[in-house]
Amino acid sequence: MNNMTRSGIIVALMAASTLALAEVKPSDAVEYRQGIYKAVKWNFGPMGDMVKGKQEFNAAEFSRRAANLAALSKMPLEGFIAGSYSGSTDALPAIEKDWETFAGIMSDFETSAATLAETAASGDMNAIRPAFMSVAKTCKSCHDKFKD
Ligand code: HEC
């Protein structure tokens, strides 16, 4: 790595830490995570319809949506900040009290969504179906515990 590259990286890291220090309004965090989950549903719904045979299986579309989901699965966690568990949110205060469990399920969501994206590339519904169900399980186990 040359010095120009290194100083560029240092400047970028400094900008990122400045952003992280900036005050985030709880209501903005709520809107952020709800927006991500809306995008999750937008992609997960049609995949579910294809898995259930309600919509004709299209391997290219399925793969594209699975890749979107894998990217989206990394995004909600940072929206769960202190002070964001009351008002117009369905997120339960239990999230703060049991952060380890919550973050653990989020991590299972990420891992299973990444596996689904890899499996989708095979175009083989017999492999895709169980990979899809593993992701669906993480949605349900988190909503059962942590969502109103
Ligand atoms: C680790 C926890 C967790 C996982 C995993 C998770 N969710 Fe959620 N989800 C939540 C919480 C908490 C909320 C409530 C957010 C709020 O209102 O602030 C939510 C909200 C939602 C919403 C409502 C968004 C809105 O406000 O309109 C949808 C839809 C949704 N989730 C779908 C899914 C689907 C589909 C999956 C799996 C593919 C999933 N979620 C995985 C915790 C999770």
Summarize the structure.
Helix content is 72%, strand content 0%. It has 148 residues and is an all-alpha fold.
Give an overview in words.
With 148 residues, this protein is mainly α. The chain has one domain (24-146): Cytochrome c/b562 (Four Helix Bundle (Hemerythrin (Met), subunit A), Up-down Bundle), CATH 1.20.120. 72% of the residues lie in helices and 0% in strands. It is globular. The site of heme C has 22 residues, from helix 2, helix 5 and helix 6.
Tell me the layout of helices and strands.
Elements: H1 3-21, H2 26-51, H3 59-72, H4 94-97, H5 99-120, H6 125-146
Helix pairs in contact: 2-3, 3-5, 5-6
This protein binds heme C.
Sum up the structure in keywords.
single chain, mainly alpha, Four Helix Bundle (Hemerythrin (Met), subunit A), globular, binds heme C
Whole-number mean pLDDT: 92
Count of folded domains? 1
Helix-and-strand structural type = mainly alpha
**CATH superfamily descriptor:** Cytochrome c/b562
Helix content: over 70%
